[in-house]
């Protein structure tokens, strides 16, 4: 009987794996179709200046608008896209949607910057530079108001080549941010070599405050030395906000201020946040 059970189990497991592999194939196929049909949309999460309490920027975060399942978050598809190469077309789509949005904001007088996430594979691809050049030629291109977020891992490799690429992008009128700073590649020598305008402290450090205080202080000092704007990601509480304000962090982003919202809801969210600058001041006074 035990032999029988063992055999059944073996079949059971291999069937399970078959099902999983098939499910993954299906997602891949659906994703390919989705990229072709442009079933993606951007949500925008405001970034608030600690100095003025005003919204200065918004990060574009992609969502898959699945015809049956509704909105799907990037954790379910970005890695698959990166592995299969679909990210090149998806990244292109995001870049187009994002740049068009930034141009619209500029034209309608909404004075905020825009951040776009660029995947490692997309950064490698020559198409990125071509597209960035094309958008930069638009008569209403908002110069130095579009920021490209790359992760530290993108900076591994030939530093001369990377430095050249970053400086080309920078000269075209885009800013460069390092996303999830402190979690990736640990060689810090690149910091002073590359044109970096912004460091985004990874949310894992923010969620571990005050224990992670010394690391955040170090990043703040480093950022100031190179003249970069420091942004804290994933701010979820008044205590975290107060700590960051007391340590002169430049900007904050996180659910405590606002979740990512649809483009059509962004102006109202900005208005609400701009009216409640007191949130930041109160956080300061309460915990000083
Ligand atoms: P990220 O670029 O570090 O973006 C921040 C993520 O943290 C977003 O998740 C955001 O919704 C979430 N977040 C914001 N505030 C809070 C908070 O207070 N607490 C917590 N726990 N989370 C917060 P999302 O939208 O699910 O995106 C996840 C990741 O997917 C992004 O991390 C980014 O790496 C990637 N991603 C998103 N959009 C794109 C894109 O257009 N292209 C590429 N290549 N990657 C993207
Ligand atoms: Mg990001
Ligand atoms: Mg991040
Ligand atoms: Mg992240």
From TrEMBL:
<protein>
    <recommendedName>
        <fullName>Diguanylate cyclase/phosphodiesterase</fullName>
    </recommendedName>
</protein>
<feature type="domain" description="EAL">
    <location>
        <begin position="24"/>
        <end position="274"/>
    </location>
</feature>
């Amino acid at each position: 009987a035990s032999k029988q059970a063992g055999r059944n189990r073996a079949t059971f497991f291999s069937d399970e794996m078959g099902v999983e592999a098939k499910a993954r194939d299906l997602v891949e196929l659906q994703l390919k179709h989705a990229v072709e049909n442009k079933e993606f949309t951007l949500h925008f999460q405001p970034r608030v200046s600690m100095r003025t309490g005003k919204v200065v920027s918004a990060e574009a975060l992609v969502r898959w608008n699945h015809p049956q399942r509704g909105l799907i978050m990037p954790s379910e598809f970005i890695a698959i896209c990166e592995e299969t190469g679909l990210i090149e077309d998806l990244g292109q789509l995001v870049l187009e949607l994002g740049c068009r949005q930034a141009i619209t904001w500029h034209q309608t007088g909404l004075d905020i910057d825009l951040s776009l996430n660029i995947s490692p594979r997309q950064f490698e691809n020559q198409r990125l530079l071509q597209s960035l050049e094309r958008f930069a030629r638009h008569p209403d291109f908002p110069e130095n108001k579009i920021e490209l977020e790359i992760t530290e891992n993108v900076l591994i490799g030939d530093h001369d080549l990377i430095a050249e690429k970053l400086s080309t992008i920078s000269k075209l009128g885009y800013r460069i941010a390092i996303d999830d700073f402190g979690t990736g590649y640990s060689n810090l020598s690149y910091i002073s070599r590359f044109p970096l305008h912004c460091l985004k402290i990874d949310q894992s450090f923010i969620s571990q405050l005050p224990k992670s205080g010394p690391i955040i202080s170090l990043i703040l000092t480093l950022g100031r030395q190179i003249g970069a704007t420091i942004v804290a990601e994933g701010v979820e509480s008044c205590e975290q906000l107060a700590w960051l304000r007391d340590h002169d962090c430049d900007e904050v982003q996180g659910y405590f201020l606002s979740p990512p919202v649809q483009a059509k809801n962004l102006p109202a969210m900005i208005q609400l946040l701009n009216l409640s600058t007191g949130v930041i001041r109160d956080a300061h006074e309460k915990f000083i």
